[in-house]
Design a protein that fits this description.
single chain, alpha/beta, Metallo-beta-lactamase, Chain A, 9 helices, globular
Length: 279
């Protein structure tokens, strides 16, 4: 959730069950981002859309994904003779596409290409610069609202002769830091993505294999945990979340150890855990 807007990234099987288990109301989701069309990343989508339809959703839902996804959804809806009662706004993500795909007053959603066996996109959710905080008990009496707004935007207030009436630093505190989250699902090790995720506060990067499986990772267009850590280090991110583990690993500690040998602030993502980014 960012700025009271819920964003779901990828929608594999059992997504609805996991939302319910973690007390997240599906109706609050405003955006769904689908990175690519391998089943574990979108097979739960038609079920979620159908449930939202049955629940009586009225508000628009924004769906972003590969162009072929719309045909898949339409075919499934047609086969079940379903006409959604809410607006589904589909935004196609073409191969190689990068840039802003959604802009809100307070944040943006950006996409960039990943290096996988089929077209795949990463995402960056980034807060815009925040306003300065007003020190209420220091405000002069009868100050105009427009002057307060001016100072919150980091500007001084001037009179008609260009003399400073109110210096914004006298009546405001610095704004809270703007935060960002980068998501890199299935991808081979690719230093080319560093420029898109530079200085993200939190990076999720797939880490399917341990280092001894590096050749297998490259062959299947996946990454090792050490390679994920290299990306995190080169991008100068705050924290790295590892994920998309191969089922061969019953004990994930080896993946974490290898990542931390390169980037200390590496952590395992675990089902049901909440990770907060603090400003």
């Amino acid at each position: 959730m960012i700025q009271e807007q819920y964003i779901l990234i990828d929608c594999g099987e059992c997504t609805q069950l996991l939302l319910k288990r973690n007390h997240i109301k599906p109706g609050k989701i405003r955006h769904i981002l689908i990175s690519h069309l391998h089943g574990d990343h979108y097979f739960g989508l038609i079920g979620l859309l159908s449930s939202l339809h049955l629940y009586g959703r009225k508000s628009k839902l924004n769906l972003y994904g590969p162009p072929e996804l719309l045909n898949i959804i339409n075919s499934q809806l047609k086969a079940s003779a379903t006409k959604l009662i809410f607006e589904l706004n589909f935004v196609p993500l073409d191969p190689g596409m990068h840039g802003t795909i959604f802009e809100h007053d307070n944040f943006t959603i950006q996409t960039f290409p990943l290096n996988h066996s089929i077209t795949c996109h990463g995402f960056l959710i980034k807060e815009k610069p925040k306003q300065r905080k007003i020190i209420k008990d220091q405000l002069p009496e009868n100050i105009r609202l427009q002057d307060i707004v001016t100072m919150k935007n980091g500007q001084n207030v001037y009179d008609e002769n260009d003399n400073i009436i109110y210096h914004h630093k006298d009546y405001t505190l610095p704004p809270k830091r703007s935060l960002s989250y980068a998501y890199c699902s299935d991808t081979a090790y690719d230093p080319g993505i560093v420029k898109y995720i530079k200085s993200a506060d939190l990076l999720y990067h797939e880490s399917t294999f341990a280092t001894d499986m590096a050749k297998r990772a490259a062959l299947t267009y996946h990454s090792t945990s050490e390679e994920a850590a290299r990306i995190a280090k080169d991008a100068g991110v705050g924290k790295l979340l590892l994920g998309h583990y191969s089922t061969r690993y019953k004990d994930l500690s080896i993946l974490l150890e290898q990542a931390r040998s390169v980037f200390k602030e590496s952590y395992l993502s675990q089902e049901g855990e909440t990770v907060e980014i603090n400003d």
